[in-house]
Structures are given as structure tokens and as C-alpha cells.
């Protein structure tokens, strides 16, 4: 029994990558972990109105071994059909202390250089960070390895950090997740807004609004009327502040006359018009697709608690791009693409996503909208 292989074991040669991703969702003290054949999924939530999802792809690890256990104790009424029960696979699902995990990962001196101790987002320059050298913190972490191991259901999650022959092992107690725990639903088939832009632009806009201490963030988007895309903060001690992303009118006038029509070939052989970038699109956006339902008119307007949006500031600062999506229910998704400078081992090269898989990771934040104007004041 002692020689049984663990359910999960993975080794990373760069603990800084793991720390950067998990720190993005470090707003909550605990996180729900699910181990899958493709990677590890960390989920943190607060009051069922905000959720942060970080996925550590197997390409981030030099070695990744997963031996899925059989589903636990599902033999009550289904014992008659044993043929089906033997085929069920079970992905371990448990809760750990996220704050303890972050403290463990920086036990050898990983510094949180992305953000200071202050919770307020700071303005960042929309450019790539300077390349690391022998004296920067990420470069100093390259000789460190981090080993994660989960032996069996109910066992602790073991983290072993080694550097220059010194090993430190920490075992984090795992807990059973709540029965009614569920992700904040994003209706992917009912997306009415999708905007892709540099994450630095969004981070700077939120930082500007945060200086007025607002309680509510309003997102406004339209493909036909101004303002085409704007963020406004209200409810604070100061008057309402607005950040509006402008349209390049010169390029607009030159390009309006020659808009090619693109079509997509469907599976049944028919063709349909492909959704294309709106004619009036803010200059800073790469993708700007807005299709409000008739009940909203020509503008999409939705309110969210500003303190919750602020919790995504670490991800805004670390990411290179952000995809802003909203569905008909008003659920907001901020999906951040974090681009690491170098690959992390052979798994990155053989990943299905190509050579970029080991360099890119995603962190997704979801927010429940404010349905009542008094809701923000009641929760403060």
C-alpha cells in the first residue's frame, strides 16, 4: 500500500509561473482544486458574486502524471450494472487554503513584484515588460523546482520546493467542497458583447476610476452610437467619472467605403455572414462585437460592484490581453491571457496547442451584475 502510485504528481522548474497565476485569484483565503488529465483547475469565489478561475495547464510542468481513481462509493443502487460503474472516471475535487499555498510558493523569496502591498491598482505602461536578466527575481528562480503531489482521496496536497540541495515540504490539508458549490454561469450561446484589447488599457482605465473611490462600475458599449465603449464609476464621495475609449475618425472615414463581406461555410454546406468587427470600433480594441437585444436598445449598459472589479487588478497587471464578455443575464467575464517569456520544459513543445501552450496561461474572472441601484449601497 505504501508503494502505491500517487493519484497526481507534477514537477515545475519555474515556481514563479505558478505563483503568478495563483496570485491573480488570491483575493479569497480558500480555493477549490480539481485535478484533470489536462491540468489543475483552481477556483476562488466570494459571496457567490465573484469567481476567479486559474488553470495550470500540464504544459507548465516538466513532468505531469495523473492516475485517476475510481469514483468513490457509487455502489448503492447501481451495483447491478457493474459494467458501467467500472468505466466511470473520477477527477479529485477538494478545497485547500489558497493563502497558505501562496506563502509556501514564495518561501524561498519569490517577491510579488506585479503589485505592491496596496490593494489599489496602479497605472501601468501598455508595453512589454523588460526582459529578465541574471539579477531579476524570475531569473533567480530558474534553478528552483516545485513538486506537487496528491496521493489518495482525503490526503494532503504536498508541495516540495528545492533549491541548491535544500528541500522544503509543506502538506496542505484538503477539505470536502460544499455540496451546492457551482460556477457562476456564463451563457456562451447568449454572448451579447465581446471585446478584446490590451490588458494594460483596461488596467489604466480602472486605475483612473479608482482614484474617485466609486462603488459602482458601469460598462457601456454600442456598435452604432457614441459612446461606443466607456467605463464609468459612480456612488463614491466624488462626482461620476468616465473613461471613454475613442474612435479613430480618420481611419473610420477612409475604411468605411471598402468593407469586405466574409462568409462562413456551415457543416450542412450552407453559408452565412460572419460576425465582423463593428464599423464604429474603439481604436484600442482588437475585437469589438456588440449585439444588444431589442429590450436594451442600441446600447449595452450593465452595473457591477467596483470593489469586486478591483479584485482582478493583479490579473490586469500581469496579463497581455483581456477578453471582455457579457451575456444576456448580465454576467461579466474578464478572461486574461498571461504570456510567459520562455517555455517551461518539454511538455510545452508537445502540447496540442503548439509551442505557445507552455508560454500562455489564462485566468478568468466572472462577476454577477447589480440588478438594483440600491444593491451597491446595501452591500457596502
Automatic annotation (TrEMBL):
Domain of life: Eukaryota
Compositionally biased spans, kind Low complexity: 116-126
UniProt keyword terms in alphabetical order: DNA damage, DNA repair, Nucleus
GO annotation, cellular component aspect: checkpoint clamp complex
Residues covered by region (Disordered): 115-135, 251-279
Biological processes, Gene Ontology terms: DNA damage checkpoint signaling; DNA repair
InterPro entries recorded: Rad1_Rec1_Rad17
Compartments in which it is found: Nucleus
A Pfam entry, by short name: Rad1
UniProt keyword Nucleus, yes or no: yes
Family label: Belongs to the rad1 family.
This protein's name: DNA repair protein Rad1
Amino acid at each position: 500500500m505504501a508503494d502505491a502510485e500517487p493519484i497526481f504528481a507534477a514537477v515545475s522548474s519555474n515556481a514563479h509561473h505558478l505563483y503568478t497565476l495563483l496570485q491573480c485569484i488570491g483575493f479569497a483565503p480558500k480555493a477549490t482544486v480539481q485535478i484533470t488529465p489536462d491540468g489543475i483547475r483552481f477556483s476562488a469565489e466570494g459571496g457567490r458574486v465573484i469567481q476567479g478561475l486559474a488553470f495550470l495547464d500540464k504544459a507548465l510542468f516538466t513532468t505531469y502524471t495523473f492516475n485517476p481513481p475510481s469514483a468513490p462509493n457509487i455502489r448503492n443502487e447501481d451495483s447491478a450494472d457493474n459494467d458501467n460503474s467500472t468505466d466511470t472516471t473520477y477527477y479529485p475535487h477538494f478545497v485547500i487554503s489558497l493563502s497558505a499555498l501562496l506563502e509556501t510558493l514564495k518561501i524561498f523569496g519569490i517577491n510579488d513584484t506585479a503589485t505592491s502591498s496596496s490593494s489599489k491598482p496602479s497605472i501601468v505602461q501598455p508595453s512589454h515588460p523588460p526582459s529578465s536578466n541574471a539579477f531579476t527575481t524570475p531569473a533567480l528562480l530558474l534553478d528552483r523546482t516545485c513538486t506537487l503531489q496528491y496521493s489518495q482521496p482525503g490526503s494532503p496536497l504536498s508541495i516540495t520546493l528545492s533549491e541548491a540541495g535544500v528541500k522544503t515540504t509543506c502538506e496542505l490539508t484538503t477539505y470536502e467542497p460544499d455540496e451546492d458549490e457551482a460556477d457562476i454561469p456564463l451563457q456562451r450561446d447568449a454572448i451579447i458583447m465581446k471585446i478584446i484589447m490590451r490588458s494594460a488599457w483596461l488596467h489604466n482605465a480602472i486605475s483612473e476610476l479608482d482614484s474617485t473611490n466609486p462603488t459602482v462600475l458601469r460598462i457601456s458599449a454600442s456598435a452604432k452610437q457614441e459612446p461606443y465603449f466607456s467605463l464609468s464609476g459612480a456612488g463614491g464621495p466624488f462626482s461620476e467619472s468616465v473613461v471613454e475609449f475613442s474612435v479613430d475618425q480618420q481611419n473610420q472615414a477612409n475604411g468605411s467605403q471598402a468593407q469586405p463581406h466574409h462568409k462562413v461555410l456551415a457543416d450542412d454546406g450552407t453559408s452565412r455572414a460572419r460576425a465582423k468587427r463593428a464599423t464604429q470600433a474603439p481604436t484600442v480594441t482588437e475585437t469589438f462585437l456588440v449585439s444588444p437585444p431589442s429590450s436594451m436598445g442600441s446600447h449595452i449598459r450593465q452595473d457591477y460592484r467596483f470593489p469586486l472589479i478591483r479584485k482582478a487588478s493583479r490579473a490586469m497587471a500581469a496579463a497581455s490581453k483581456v477578453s471582455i464578455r457579457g451575456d444576456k443575464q448580465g454576467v461579466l467575464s474578464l478572461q486574461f491571457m498571461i504570456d510567459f517569456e520562455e517555455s517551461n520544459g518539454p511538455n510545452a513543445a508537445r502540447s496540442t496547442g503548439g509551442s505557445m501552450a507552455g508560454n500562455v496561461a489564462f485566468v478568468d474572472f466572472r462577476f454577477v451584475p447589480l440588478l438594483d441601484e440600491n444593491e451597491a449601497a446595501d452591500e457596502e
